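re: that complex we talked abt at group meeting.

here r the seqs, copy pasted straight from the sheet so there may be weird spacing, ignore it
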Amino acid sequence: MADERLLIKQAKQGDMEAFHELVESSKLNVYRLAFDMLRNRHDAEDVSQDVFLQAYRSLDKFRGDAKWSTWLYRITVNTCLDRNKSAMRKALDYREDIGSDGPTEISRQPHDAVLPDRSAESTLIQGHVERALGCLSTQERTVFVLRHYHDLSLKQIAESLSVAEGTVKSYLFRAVQRLQRELAFYRTDLGLENER
Amino acid sequence: MTCEQCKNLFVEAYYKELVERDKKEFEQHLAGCRTCPAAFKEFEQTLALMARRAPATPDEKFSANLWNSLKSKIANDQAPAPRRILNLTPRVPKITSMPAWAYGIAAMLFVALGIYLGKHYFTGTPGLNKERTEESLTSAPPTVDSLSGDAVQKEVDAYLDRSRTLLLGLIHSPDTHLSAENFATQQQVSRELIQQASLIESKLKEPDRERFKQLIGDLTVILRELANYSNESGVPLIEIVRQGVDTKSIMLKINLEQIRSFGARLRAEQAKKSSEPKSKI
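got the structure back, here u go
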């Protein structure tokens, strides 16, 4: 792939091929983040399209201070929130909702989302992990997914979500604590007891 | 470093985001603490387990179609607004597009017209109006000798004023049939006006007086019907007059001519004033 900055510059000048390259290089990550947040394949696909469309419309506003991927993640998170505004927007108010660490209405629902493809040997682990993820509140899950599966640093997550780095750290710590509790029942199944 | 402070650094420690100073203190605490190493190990195990989650993979169809779908949406964004192919709505000039000064002039014209009409039709007491009407109707027409220059215009104005008074009296009459005395007076006045009109017409030779000639011709038609009216026709006189006045828009034409005449007199007076030599100081 050509230099990302160069592609962005060309795309800003109306070069559709350059923008196509940018889409191809980041579509998988955008889709995965959308899926991790919404836990639904169709919604994730719709959101992915919306994200790139918004990115194209807002190319002029991209100053290059943040990475292209960070900027896209920010759009993705916001688009996902807009999609589930009624249930998620309320839950994902990082500035006010420090005291709330319970799972959201969405995450309390039985996990009937289509799970990602997986090999037969990891079916058991996948099931437990997905269920544990489903028990996180939306804010915890978003932060956890961005850090753990999309490799954004705490600082980048804070930038993406427009919150303080300390807030991100706090949510992440609580997310891991909750995951520990959720997975404690399956420790034997998961072979964790032996490692302890 | 306390155990609580140590636990607060678990996240950064696991993701290797500890700053150098914190990293040293963290490692020192773990080395000397009995509980924190186990807690950190459990923390690591949980995250390691979560890392075994297989990432979501989109459908091949989605991956293949994303760009095409996106491209068409972007094209729709950039397409100009659809043009109206056939507009059957008649084009009506927008009143709102008129400049503000046009509204001002229109308002002033309306006010001037209102003042003029009010002054001529609605002022004074009924008794005075009656007196004025009778005076107007019975006043003798000016002689031909007196008509010269501005005198022609004055004669025209007097003729129009007298004709208008006569016609207004008839068309606004509450009775369909006139009394014999009133009818005789109206016929007498009509004949005088017809004579006056023929005198004026002979003086109106300038091309810009054609408008007056046209109006006088229309008025004469009505006045002749009035002068030659006999009850044998069966049609009330007032109806004949009303119809003639309405059909030829006589009142509107008289009003317009009087407004023009008034304007012309004003201009003439101003011109006269401006041409007078200024008094010496």
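couple things i noticed - Chain A has two domains: 1-83, 96-196. The radius of gyration of chain A is 18 Å.
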